[in-house]
Design brief:
single chain, elongated, 4 helices, Glutaredoxin, 187 residues, alpha/beta
Length: 187
């Protein structure tokens, strides 16, 4: 009888401990991202002049610099937007969330949900990370739509304080994409 009770306790213990051990092993194999903004890149002394020419920006996507005289209308786009128009939005204090065109529809929808009213969301060809969030002079590469640093970045920089013309609206701008069409949907 004692042997049966011991065997039952061993089986019960294994039933509880094995799933816990498996979950801990899975968690340890997942890449972890520190929920801080230490990896934000800062770019200073960016020019602010207007040009109707195409600009060859150093950063991908650009973080500021020369830009088109007309800004891009706020909202979510399903096609890449013209850098020069989006940079004008950055000058106005907008948040630009760029994502790899191969990002899943659920992730794009999640990004749409966190996009501020003064923000732009658009796919970006050749992006160096799955998602990149940018304001004037600041940029952070993210591991995906669920990266915990995205809301921290928006909270810290989304008020436009790094921009030369903070609090200017991005409403009322052009809605054109790089292909020349209207690839946007209002958020």
């Amino acid at each position: 009888m004692v042997l049966a009770v011991v065997a039952a306790l061993v089986v019960l213990a294994l039933a509880v401990l094995v799933p816990v051990a498996v979950q801990r092993l899975r968690d340890s194999q997942q890449p972890t991202v520190a929920a801080n903004l230490h990896e934000v890149k800062v770019y200073e002394n960016l020019p602010r002049d207007h040009t109707e020419d195409d600009v060859d920006y150093t950063q991908v996507p650009p973080v500021g610099g020369r830009h088109d005289p007309v800004w891009l209308d706020c909202g979510a786009y399903d096609a890449p937007v013209r850098d020069e128009n989006a940079v004008h939005d950055l000058e106005h204090g907008s948040v630009w969330i760029s994502y790899d065109p191969g990002l899943g529809a659920d992730d794009v929808q999640a990004l749409t949900q966190v996009l501020p009213h003064n923000g732009i969301l658009a796919p970006y060809d050749g992006l160096p990370a799955p998602v990149v969030v940018t304001v004037w002079g600041r940029q952070l590469r993210l591991t995906g739509a669920d990266d915990p640093r995205l809301p921290l970045f928006i909270e810290r920089f989304g008020d436009g304080h790094t921009a030369p013309e903070p609090f200017a609206s991005c409403a009322g701008g052009v809605r054109e994409t790089k292909s020349g069409g209207d690839g946007g949907t209002n958020v």
